[in-house]
Every structure is written in C-alpha cells, then in structure tokens.
Design a protein that fits this description.
By secondary structure, the chain is an alpha/beta fold. It is built from 14 helices and 18 strands. The chain has helices at 10-22, 49-58, 60-69, 102-115, 151-155, 157-160, 215-220, 228-238, 292-308, 317-350, 360-368, 378-384, 388-408, 414-419, and strands at 2-6, 28-32, 44-47, 71-73, 76-81, 87-92, 97-101, 119-121, 141-144, 163-166, 170-176, 183-190, 193-200, 207-213, 248-249, 263-266, 271-272, 275-277. The strands form four sheets. A seven-stranded mixed sheet has the order 6-5-12-13-14-11-15, with helices on both faces. A six-stranded mixed sheet has the order 8-2-1-9-18-17, with helices on one face. A three-stranded antiparallel sheet has the order 3-7-4. Helix 1 links the parallel strand 1 (2-6) and strand 2 (28-32). It is globular, with a radius of gyration of 22 Å.
Length: 422
C-alpha cells in the first residue's frame, strides 16, 4: 500500500512511523511538508500519561526518545494580582504533566520516521485536491494532516461538513526567559479589565507563556492598535511580578497582528474516498486544556489500529475502505465529548471577570473544575492542599503515582524505581 501523509507535524509523522512498523516495512510511506525542516509555531507542547502509554504501546523505541526529551512539571499554581501589586498564590495539588519543545518533538519524530524507512520531504507543498497532484494522485491512502488551515479539507469542505466557530477572547503565544518551575496561571488587574497568562516550562527551550484577555480589555489597553514589539514590552511591565522581572519572547514569525481568536474546527465526517483527516485538520480543542498535540497523535494511533489491527497488512481496497470507516466513526465519537469539554473550558475563561472577585481558593477551585470533571469531595482536599505539610505529602503521593505509571508501561524498571534512579 502506498501512503502519503500531507503535513509533517506530529500526527502525520507518527502515522507514517506506525504504518512502516505495522506493515513490517512493506508499505511505501511518504511524508510531505510545505515548510522547511525545523519551522514550527509556538514554543512547547504538553503531554499526558495516556499519550505516553500509547507511544510506549505502539513504538517503544520512539517513545523513549520522546520521553527523554520531555520535562516533568509537578505542580500547578494560580497567582492572582491585586491593585497594590501583591500576588496570592493558590496551589492545585495532585497535578503534573510533561512538556517538550515543539521543534524538538518534530526533530525526534522525523529522525525516528527516517530510521524506519519513511520518505520525509520538506519544502514540498501539495495541491488542495490530492487527485490532481503527482505526489498523491497514485496513493492508496492520503492522510490530510495539514493543520487547521488544511487546503485539502477546505477544497472539500461541503463533503466533510466543516464547521468553524470562534471564541471571544484574544490571545497570543509568547515565550519567556523565566524558567517556570510549575505550570502557572497568573492573573493581573488593569484599568480595562483582567489580563492573564498560562505558562509552563520545557526542558529544551524557553517557557511557553500564552497571554489572554477579553476583547474589551484588548481594546481598552490599546493592544488592538499597538505595535507588536511595543505591546510585548507593555505586557512585560504588566506581568513584572508574575514574570519575576524576566522578558517575554516574540513567537516565530510574529507579524503586525499576532493576536488570535481561537478557532474550533468540527467535521461531520473525516473521510472522503481514500482521503482521511487527522489532527487540527479534523478537530481543534481550546489551548486551555492543552491537548492539541496529544489528540493529534491519538488520531495517528487510532488510524493505525484501524488499518493494521494486530499488525496484518491490509491488501485490498475494500479492506481499506472499511478501515477508514472504522477510524472515522471511532475517533469522531471519542472527540465529541472532548471538544464539548474544551468548549466549556474556553467559555470559563471568557467569563472570568465575574469570577475574580471570589476568594482566591474558591476561584482556583472553579478553574480546576472548569470542565466539570471534579467530584464534590475533592474541594475539601483542595482546601487542605493550601497547607504546606499537606501539600508536601500530596506531592510525594503524586510522584509515586507517576512512577508506578512509568513502571507499568515499561518506561522504567523495578530496579530503577527501588533505587530512585528515574
């Protein structure tokens, strides 16, 4: 089978890797990427335990390379500024995750793809209609992993039933020279309303710092008309306490208007003949739940499972059609509640001004439960977590839980766990 993945992001690269592995190297797999090697947007992405489990299940060799490049953050902190310049930190216990620089992740996946025999081509654009492009016209399967602005999806938007909606808030992805130790939400009051950032560290690049505000605050502070460099310097001053005097770093290729509104992409089907959508071409989720890369790679695993099952090669078009139908049905069913949850999270941040008058601990609980996935008994544990000795005990229990998970998927050995060399 000849497979062409259009888009050299995590989903396209990982599907290509799995296709080569599952077919025993028999399938001809190519990844074509319109940008040059190393070109990427943003700074770092977050990963969770479920996707690490999936990586170790499907490609342990590649998974070890990804995990080795990832940074573990073991705490979440909420800092709420006040008019006198003080900040009141609140701790969210039991939380941890992994982060990795976007460029480093792509480098690891590209290296692994080439190692297993994938033909990876950069600076190679593909036409919106795969049937008309020589690179894809004779492919048995075309995987459209070409991002939120997918030309392939746009070409056949009526067939895919594409719906795109926009969030209210404005946001911009920055980096910062501050090496955050914890995943941090920082909220600062201004004369035009509240402005805040989501920041998290990475092992191999600067911390990511996503600044967000309501459209009223955006215009009230003049950010809608301000020169981007001037705006960045102004935001540094506004967040001087939370950034501890460190600078913000412009996103790659920052133009005259770096501010964005979130675009939610949904499709009523992810397949058309021998073409399937993956990643942001198929769906998007608000950055507040930090799952874009995770869900894109999960698509890759889902498609590989549908195509190859227990590893057997798919030899016939009829089998391919059935596999694509199964992938489409299963992954869309999985994604719908996740997108609904992400929308609730987005809407929570869109109505934040009315919540920030609450007690900080209560506000932090509301942020933690913004997706509606926390049980009522957890609130008392959340309050107790603000007491330092309780927080230390909870952190040790969380660390033990993380190590047990790593042991269960084969990331570490029992000897390493017992000796503490993890």
């Amino acid at each position: 089978m000849k497979i062409v993945c259009v888009g050299g992001g995590p989903s396209g690269l990982y599907l290509a890797i799995l296709a080569r592995l599952r077919s025993g190297g028999r399938d001809d797999v190519t990844v074509v990427e319109r940008n040059g090697f190393g070109a990427t947007q943003g700074f770092a992405v977050t990963l969770g335990e479920d996707i690490l489990d999936g990586l170790f299940r499907t490609d342990p060799v590649g998974a070890r390379a990804v995990r080795a490049a990832a940074h573990v953050w073991g705490e979440q902190v909420i800092e709420i500024g006040s008019r006198d310049g003080s900040g009141r930190p609140v701790h969210l216990g039991g939380r941890y995750g992994y982060s990795i620089g976007r460029a480093r992740l792509l480098e690891v996946l590209t290296e692994r793809a080439r190692q297993v025999g994938v033909d990876v081509r950069f600076d190679t654009p593909v036409a919106g209609d795969p049937a008309q492009d020589p690179l894809t016209a004779d492919a048995d399967l075309v995987v459209a992993a070409d991002g939120i602005n997918s030309p392939i999806r746009a070409r056949h938007a009526d067939h895919f039933g594409t719906e795109i909606s926009h969030g209210r808030n404005r946001y911009v992805w920055f980096g910062t020279s501050r090496a955050f130790a914890a995943f941090t939400f920082a909220f600062e009051p201004t004369e035009a309303g509240w402005i805040w950032f989501h920041a998290y560290p990475a092992a191999d690049c600067v911390s990511t710092c996503i600044v967000e505000c309501s459209p009223e605050t955006w215009t009230g502070l003049g950010l809608d008309t301000m020169d981007p460099d001037e705006a960045m310097r102004m935001l540094e001053r506004r967040f001087a306490r939370a950034l501890d005097g460190h600078s913000l770093i412009a996103p790659p290729g920052m133009g005259s208007s770096p501010w964005l509104r979130f675009r939610e992409v949904r499709n009523s089907t992810w397949r058309r003949d021998n073409v399937v959508l993956m990643g942001d071409a198929a769906h998007t989720t608000h950055f507040a739940i930090g799952s874009g890369t995770v869900l894109a790679v999960a698509d890759s695993i889902g498609l590989a499972d549908a195509l190859y099952g227990d590893g057997a090669h798919v030899p016939a078009a009829a089998d391919l059609s059935g596999a694509l139908a199964a992938y489409d049905a299963r992954r869309r069913a999985v994604m719908k509640p996740i997108q609904d949850m992400a929308r609730r999270s987005m809407e929570w941040f869109e109505n934040i001004d009315e919540r920030l008058d609450q007690d900080p601990v209560r506000f932090a609980w509301s942020l933690l439960d913004r997706r509606g996935d926390q049980g009522p008994l957890h609130y008392q544990l959340h309050r107790a977590t603000q007491i330092e000795p309780v927080r230390r005990v909870r952190a040790r229990l969380t660390s033990a839980r993380r190590h047990r998970r790593a042991l269960s998927r084969g990331e570490i050995t029992r000897a390493q766990l017992l000796t503490g060399s993890t």
